[in-house]
Amino acid sequence: MHIQQVHYFCALSEERNFTRAARRCGVSQPSISNAIHRLEAEFGGRLFERKRGGVGLTRLGHLLRPFFEDINRSCAAAQCEAARFFASAAGAPARSALARRGWTIARRANAAW
Fold first, then answer.
1. Which domain holds residue 39?
2. What confidence tens digit (pLDDT) does each residue in 11-23 have?
3. Structural domain tally of the chain?
């Protein structure tokens, strides 16, 4: 399992649409689809039901969602802490791409939680 797959899972479970999830993550729709397929293969079952009007979580997806959300929040928090560490060491505010990405993910994760 890769952290990016977890991030894509969380985006897809919130957006319920592959295209919107891809746009939110800044990747192509096939990237999201392939990552989800690999995640499903690793866990041995479908995480999403593909329906005409979008996607929804399967029972397995509902079971695993809290774990994936925790992983996603923890990664965002780690990115923020690393950015703060380097900013304080340099004596400057944290304005790196790492900090912006971490704060964006953390805000979304906390809003969804």
1. 3-112
2. 999 999 999 999 9
3. 1
